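--- STAGE predict ---
source: upstream dedup step, 1 unique chain passed
mode: sequence only
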Amino acid sequence: MEIPADLRYTQDHEWLRVENGIAVVGITDFAQCELGDIVFVEIETENEELEKGETFGTVEAVKTVSDLFMPLAGQVIEVNTALIDEPELVNNDPYGKGWMIKIDMSDESQIDELLSAKEYQDLIET
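--- STAGE serialize ---
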């Protein structure tokens, strides 16, 4: 299972990477393994301002539907539309082509509240 050291993580199994001041968010390799084959990703929060912890969408796997949570506050400025036709990108490339949203962050200091790769590794091993 892959846990890239350069990302930050939530206890809800989302990851976050900052690119040019914009937060890119997806679900972790662990999460997609636990969910199984992802068949549908629904994100209808584009252009919405959401608080940390609020639901920004859902991911549907063969056996279950799970909510997706904002890792920090901000405006959802882009949704990965490739997931509409290819939700399996989340399974095949969770940290790359399987990203879900981009956020214009309200408070970058909230990044410091997220888990490091080591802290996330410890979380999923307990």
